[in-house]
Write a structure and sequence with these properties.
The chain is mostly beta strands and 292 residues long. Helices cover 1% and strands 36% of the residues. The chain is built from 1 helix and 19 strands.
């Protein structure tokens, strides 16, 4: 099992990430308040699917190893508090067509983190070496956790991260949510000269005080040469092109791989507190990629 490196430090007390941590900063933040929709959109034609995982299987089963690998370790770069584990303790099918990534306040294996004995465990999955693609429609239908310190994400990194490092490889954050903003998600681009606090992105906010943890929602990007468009439940809320980068390099015209994870704590979300209930779960109905 490959364990990806931790290629990026983050200077700002707000966001995270790398190949064992990649951040998203919603610079140029834009709050959008559309109507919520909990029903899944109609599937795209099967012939157009380049990648799909509906997470069908018996309760407690592992994810398909032909599609996903589990990363292990902690993440000092973002000061996250969890240790990402292998096996099915923190990432398993629920027998109802979902992948459940579970963050637990426990450490029975005595994992060591950057701050000492780890206080939490969780999981992080990626498709590196299994599925990569340039361009297409990339979406996941998910129900996020709730609570201070929770940090679920669905995102992508350039496949050349091992040779050029982060942020030169490029990062597309399709969805990030932090527990202190229960009704808001963020979509962000990171690349050379616009990473960390300089990431280019926007925020999408549900109406009427609704929380993303209340229902499933579909998070997607439509990605083509020199253009990325984000949507929630089919509603577009931002589009980015090289014109948004002020002359800096566009790092998104090449293959990327997918990542799903649930972090606990860190610079951006802050750490859990006495109000945070564990375990918390990121429930993923499906992941699909079409086109290319």
């Amino acid at each position: 099992m490959t364990v990806l490196p931790l290629p990026r430090p983050h200077s700002r007390p707000r966001r995270r990430r790398a190949a064992l941590g990649a951040l998203a900063a919603a610079c140029c933040a834009l709050a959008v308040s559309p109507a919520a929709a909990s029903a899944p959109p109609a599937p795209r034609p099967a012939a157009a699917l380049a990648f799909t995982d509906d997470f069908n299987g018996p309760a407690g089963a592992a994810v398909d190893g032909g599609k996903w690998q589990l990363e292990t370790g902690d993440n000092v770069n973002n000061h996250e508090r969890q240790y990402y584990t292998s096996g099915t303790k923190n990432a398993a099918l629920d027998g109802q067509g979902n992948l459940v990534i579970t963050a637990r306040k426990e450490n029975p294996a005595n994992y060591a983190c950057w701050y000492g004995r780890c206080e939490y465990t969780s999981a992080r999955l990626n498709t590196a070496g299994r599925f990569t693609q340039a361009y297409g429609h990339v979406e996941a239908r998910m129900k996020v956790p709730r609570g201070q310190g929770m940090w679920p994400a669905f995102w992508m990194l350039g496949t050349d991260i091992g040779s050029v490092g982060w942020p030169n490889c490029g990062e597309i954050d399709i969805m990030e949510n932090v527990g202190f903003e229960p009704g808001t998600v963020h979509g962000t681009l990171h690349g050379p000269g616009y990473s960390g606090s300089g990431g280019i992105g926007a925020a999408y906010t549900l109406p009427g005080g609704e929380a993303f943890a209340d229902n499933f929602h579909t998070f997607a990007v439509d990605w083509s040469p020199n253009k990325v468009t984000w949507s929630v439940d089919g509603r577009v809320y931002q589009t980015r092109t090289p014109a948004d980068l002020g002359g800096r390099q566009w790092a998104f015209n090449k293959p990327f791989f997918l990542i799903l994870n649930l972090a606990v704590g860190g610079y951006w979300p802050g750490d859990p507190n006495g109000s945070t209930v564990f375990p918390q779960k990121l429930t993923v109905d499906y992941v699909r990629v079409t086109g290319g």
